[in-house]
Design brief:
Strand content: 5-15%
Number of domains: 1
CATH superfamily: Protein tyrosine phosphatase superfamily
Largest sheet: 5 strands, mixed
Shape: globular
Number of helices: 7
Order of helices and strands: EEHEHEHEHHHH
CATH architecture: Alpha-Beta Complex
Number of strands: 5
Length: about 160
């Protein structure tokens, strides 16, 4: 049985994506029953990322950890390190994975990375923005133009 706090997976091609706030300890064991195959944590270590990872792996899902210290667009070096992760997430979704991306509140970091993945999947900016709102309204409304511009800049012309 799903709970109000469960992430909502939105179909994207063969896979699906969900954007979320930090999952509660009691919620993670339900994720496989929702079809979640991968959880992406954008929390820093001081925010308890490793504990989330342990719960995810105990529940039988794959965990991807890419810590972002805050909700600002990353500097060029951190952006370069994040590019392969965004490519991997897009490839996983194309391949049928059902991916949940989260940070703490699920707005700035989550929206920024989620939008970048949508752009990597080939969605044009208006469609990616609309999909972000569909994925999680509070994220789509609160992500901010600077974070969207960061995601747009990652797409090769």
């Amino acid at each position: 049985m799903t709970q109000a706090s469960d992430p909502t997976l939105v179909p994207l091609g063969a896979g699906a994506l969900a954007l979320s706030h930090r999952p509660k300890r009691r919620d993670v064991p339900r994720f496989p029953g929702l079809g979640v195959t991968h959880v992406v944590t954008l929390l820093s270590e001081r925010e308890g990322a490793r504990q989330v990872g342990e719960l995810v792996e105990q529940a039988g899902m794959s965990w991807i950890w890419f810590p972002l210290d805050n909700g600002r667009p990353p500097d060029p070096a951190r952006t370069a390190a994040l590019l392969p992760v965004i490519a991997e997430l897009a490839a996983l979704i194309v391949g049928g994975a059902r991916v949940v991306v989260h940070c703490s509140a699920g707005i700035h970091r989550t929206g920024m990375v989620g939008y970048a993945v949508l752009r990597r999947l080939g969605l044009e900016p208006p469609a990616a923005r609309a999909k972000l709102l569909e994925l999680r309204t509070v994220t789509g409304e609160g992500v901010g133009d600077d974070r969207l511009a960061w995601g747009d800049a990652l797409v090769q012309p």
